[in-house]
Amino acid sequence: MRAGSGGDRRAELAAALAQVRERIGAAANSADRDPARVRLVAVTKTFPARDAALLAELGIGDLGENRDQEAAAKTAEVARLRPDAALRWHMVGRLQRNKARSVAGWADVVQSVDSGRLVEALDRATLAALHDGRRRRPLDVLVQVSLDTDEAAQHRGGCPPAGVPALAEHVASAQGLVLCGVMAVAPLGADPEAAFERLAAVAAKLRESYPEAVEVSAGMTGDLEAAIRHGSTCVRVGTALLGRRPLASP
């Protein structure tokens, strides 16, 4: 799905987008949920800005990136290609504190907040960006929850469920950040149903203290149906929309 003329690529993306939306709709209807309440974030990491611009043209309003260096350049290029598009850019990958200043300049949402030190770095960076005009509103934040049950297993970041209340309080008390909910990735090789059931319980507990923190970002190309069954309000889809990436992303 990577090659071809602009018209061919647009047709490929349109067909893939229709299939993904059909999957989301079927999963939501099966769970007696409104498909319109499930946000689709198109994860464009490693793909060119022109693909992101075509997705915007096809009606995608939310785009996700994993690496700050790639995203900073891509967001600027997409803004040039589609200056009238109303886009929300999501940072969905693991984030180092030393990238906070850059991310505060382009991201509307950071989905991968998993430590108090990262909260503090993002808060400082966001307040500075607001002060110098690089952004117009606070930064929306999701607490990333680790769903690994084996502590020795290699995982993709996240705060242990027991630590979520304290981390959420840290976010909620930050002047430049808005606590919007939780995010998680199903552990490699694990049953996504069980993982997303655990996440749903964490999310429900969080809403008891923060009723506005309703976002549950869970589900990707291979497991979005399971995530939607367990209350996901946001699925992050890359491969099913854009095709397989030629290089693995860390």
Provide a descriptive summary of the structure in words.
The structure is a single chain. This protein has 250 residues and is an alpha/beta fold. The chain has one domain: Alanine racemase (TIM Barrel, Alpha-Beta Barrel). Helices cover 44% and strands 15% of the residues. The chain has nine helices and eight strands. An eight-stranded parallel sheet has the order 7-6-5-4-3-2-1-8. Helix 3 packs parallel to helix 4. The mean pLDDT is 94.
Describe how the helices and strands are arranged.
Layout: H1 6-30, E1 39-43, H2 49-57, E2 62-65, H3 68-81, E3 88-91, H4 100-106, E4 109-113, H5 116-132, E5 139-144, H6 164-172, E6 177-183, H7 192-209, E7 215-217, H8 224-229, E8 234-237, H9 239-242
Parallel strand pairs: 1-2, 1-8, 2-3, 3-4, 4-5, 5-6, 6-7
Helix pairs in contact: 2-3, 3-4, 4-5
The number of distinct β-strands equals: 8
- The N- to C-terminal Cα distance equals 22 Å
The gross shape turns out to be globular
CATH topology: TIM Barrel
Helix content: 40-55%
Which value, in Å, is the CA radius of gyration?
Answer: 17 Å
Listing every helix as H and every strand as E from the N terminus to the C terminus, the arrangement reads HEHEHEHEHEHEHEHEH
Output mean pLDDT.
94
Q: How many alpha or pi helices?
A: 9
Strand order of the largest sheet: 7-6-5-4-3-2-1-8
**Quaternary class:** single chain
CATH architecture: Alpha-Beta Barrel
CATH H-level superfamily:
Alanine racemase
CATH class term = Alpha Beta
Number of domains: 1
